[in-house]
Amino acid sequence: MNFSGEQIERYSRNILLSEVGGVGQNRLLSSRVLLVGAGGLGSPAGLYLAAAGVGKIGLVDGDVVDLSNLQRQIAHNTAALGQPKVESAAATFKALNPDVQVRTYFTRLTAANAADILADYDIVIDGTDSFASKFLIADACYFTRKPYVHAGVLRFEGQLMTVLPGESTCYRCVFRSPPPSSFVPSCLEAGVLGAVAGVIGTLQAVEALKFLLGKGTLLTDRLMIYNGLQASFRTVKLQRSKVCPLCGDNPVITVLRDEFCKGEIALGNA
Fold it and tell me: What's the rounded Cα separation, in Å, for the pair 208 and 218?
């Protein structure tokens, strides 16, 4: 691809990096990333992916912008109240970088539509706010062999891991099934510092960009935990489980299905 003068200027700080250069920037411009959730995690992740010049960004979210979202969901603004989040975020990303094509899906990801939606993308970013959605994404990505970056935030903490299906530790290796509804408080009950979602969502974008560029060491077989109050990061080593119900030696989950937990639990990122 021949870059225009405007593109050379726009992406100059990327191109100056030896790990990116013109070849890497060209690769980003032809890449496709799916964001499931256009909230507290999807907003910063999407903004940095758009700014970096990722050619196609898909947005899946069935919610509309609410006033309580604006404390952390920085892809939206007051004028967008009541609008579908996918439309609000798409307008923000396009305003930031007209090079980027944004495809919107104003719906929830389900077992019925997941395979069709995921098919067109290189990597998935999980920016959802419920355990049911996170398990569905984990299963859908495993069955379609799509790499994905998991994350969740609550109060002053966040967690992050990257999964290469069939190669690295999967989400169900670590978290077998959705917990009881009383196990974890929602952000409505416990709150979340908006900037913490910004930190974790930005790290999701870094992981996706590294994957697309084929550079660096991905956060596979590791769970990174961030504590904003302590200003600390720690990393927990993970290992694929032979008895994992999804990717183990004798899997019991063999078809994609919607996962439900009694009383939906929000993780505080949407």
Answer: 9
Tokens of 265: 């639990």
User: Annotated catalytic, 187?
Assistant: yes
Phi (first) and psi of residue 106, to 5 degrees: -85, 75
Got the DSSP string for the chain?
-PPPHHHHHHTHHHHTSTTTHHHHHHHHHT-EEEEE--STTHHHHHHHHHHHT-SEEEEE---B--GGGGGT-TT--GGGTTSBHHHHHHHHHHHH-TT-EEEEE-S---TTTHHHHHTT-SEEEE--SBHHHHHHHHHHHHHHT--EEEEEEEBTEEEEEEE-TTTS--HHHH--SPPPTTSS--HHHH-B-HHHHHHHHHHHHHHHHHHHHT-S---TTEEEEEETTTTEEEEEE----TT-TTTSSS-S--S------SS--B-S--
Residue segments in the chain with a per-residue pLDDT below the cut of 50: 261-270
| Distance separating alpha carbons of residues 1 and 150, to the nearest angstrom | 32
pTM of the entire predicted model: 0.93
pLDDT of residue 207: 98
The amino acid sitting at 257 is R
Which domains are present in the chain?
A: 21-237 (3.40.50.720)
Among 170, 173, 187, 247, the one annotated catalytic:
187
Report d(CA 235, CA 173) in Å as an integer.
16
| pLDDT on residue 161 | 98
Name residues whose C-beta falls within 8 Å of residue 90's C-beta, 6 or more positions apart in sequence.
59, 102, 104
Contact at 8 Å (CB) between 173 and 240?
yes
CA 52 to mean position of chain CA atoms: 16
